[in-house]
Design a protein that fits this description.
The chain is built from 13 helices and nine strands. The chain has helices at residues 33-46, 64-73, 89-97, 112-119, 124-137, 156-165, 180-184, 186-189, 193-209, 270-276, 278-282, 307-314, 330-342, and strands at 2-6, 50-54, 77-82, 102-106, 142-148, 170-175, 215-219, 239-242, 248-249. It is globular. Bound molecules: iron/sulfur cluster (2 copies).
Length: 363
């Protein structure tokens, strides 16, 4: 159904919850324009419907216009997932002319100063307001994506107002998922249970009030959920992810799992990778499951949750995701969230290529 194309891991922002891996691909190993265009044609042949142009920051690729054009020619619905700060109106217009279908703009906070601090980037919110206006002028549909955590959670009502001001038709209120950089920064990001519950009330109220104006996608934090989410809709069941260097992954965090081999679009056809690639076969379906998932009624609803989270927190990717209340590790895991969220937040470890040491601001 969907193909997430991480065109580059370059990004001028340094969000401490970024879903990119801790070891990011350097620009010199990124796929070329022709290689991405070939991927798009193969994706259309395979029956993929939507592509998500992501990163890093996809607008850091100078060939984005050509990639979008090829996607449109191949009949693919294209969604640009961007932080917006590198865009110009001319460029966005060219992307729209070349067939771009949808823009998803991420915001760090509705408070400009706090947004700058979270992304370690000055002036980001002002730029996003401009980008929102251009998207509207050009008649493209807009989704605003707002990752939520303890350092912006109190501003949720203002974030909803901001999404309306920007002209969004959809708002993703996405509590942080704790993989990659977010796992490293978990204590700095984890809200308390009471803070989380308040966001449920706020979103429910706003959903009712803004019916027909703004659609809400609400992503619950695993730590406060009863059952896990079906990660990627089920491993190898509907979505593929391609890294900047061409590795094809069943999910964006799959490289954190040891012992998996990932095929590359440079050496194997996309359809063959999807159908027969060892990484896609590994956790597809339910045969790989252990108890309690194996005999659970929900096994084809949530597919045992997230393999990467199961590995990161239990050391075994075939274990039940500890986000599940039926996991023997769930109570202990929830305790960690309660303890970390009650303590003062530590400093962020900012996300950046070439290392994970904190770096406060861009030049
Ligand atoms: S989450 Fe932040 S740092 Fe990561 S790609 Fe998006 S904007 Fe860049
Ligand atoms: S035991 Fe496994 S299948 Fe059942 S709800 Fe928990 S994670 Fe889902």
């Amino acid at each position: 159904m969907g193909l997430l194309m991480e065109l580059t891991h370059r990004c001028p922002l340094q969000c401490p919850y970024c879903s990119n891996p801790l070891e990011m691909d350097k620009p010199n190993i990124e796929l070329s324009t022709a290689e991405w265009q070939d991927v798009l044609r193969q994706a259309a042949e395979l029956g993929i419907l939507q592509i998500h142009l992501s990163g890093g920051e996809p607008t850091a690729r100078r060939d984005l216009e050509e990639i979008v054009k090829t996607a449109a020619e191949a009949g693919l619905y294209s969604n640009l997932i961007t932080a917006g700060v590198l865009l110009t109106r001319e460029r966005l217009q060219k992307l729209a002319e070349n067939g771009l279908d949808h823009v998803q703009l991420s915001i760090q906070d509705a408070d400009a100063e706090n947004a700058d601090r979270i992304a370690a980037y000055k002036g980001g919110l002002l730029k996003k307001r401009e980008v929102g206006a251009w998207v509207k002028e050009l008649g493209l549909p807009l989704t605003v994506n707002a990752p939520l955590h303890r350092q912006n959670i109190e501003n949720l009502p203002k974030i909803i107002d901001l999404a309306l001001e920007l002209g969004a038709g959809r708002l993703e209120v996405a509590h942080i998922q704790y993989y990659a950089w977010a796992l490293k920064n978990r204590a700095a990001l984890m809200p308390t249970r009471a803070q989380f519950m308040r966001t449920v009330e706020i979103v429910e109220e706003a959903r009712e009030r803004l019916k027909g104006i703004l659609v809400f996608d609400f992503v619950v934090p695993d730590y406060y959920a009863k059952y896990p989410k079906p990660c990627m809709g089920g491993w190898g069941s509907g979505i593929m992810n391609i890294t900047p260097s061409g590795k094809v992954l069943p999910c964006h965090a799959a490289e954190s799992l040891p012992g998996l081999e990932f095929d590359n679009v440079k050496t194997r056809r996309l359809a063959d990778i999807w159908l027969n690639g060892p990484a896609f076969q590994k956790f597809r379906g339910t045969d790989w499951m252990k108890e309690p998932c194996r005999s659970c009624d929900r096994r084809e609803i949530d597919f045992g949750g997230c393999r990467c989270q199961a590995f990161a927190l239990t050391g075994d990717a075939t274990n039940t995701d500890p986000a599940c209340s039926l996991s023997s590790l769930h109570a202990e895991w929830v305790k960690v969230a309660d303890i970390e969220s009650a303590k003062p937040a530590p400093e962020f470890v900012y996300r950046r290529i070439g290392g994970d040491k904190p770096k406060r601001e861009t030049a």
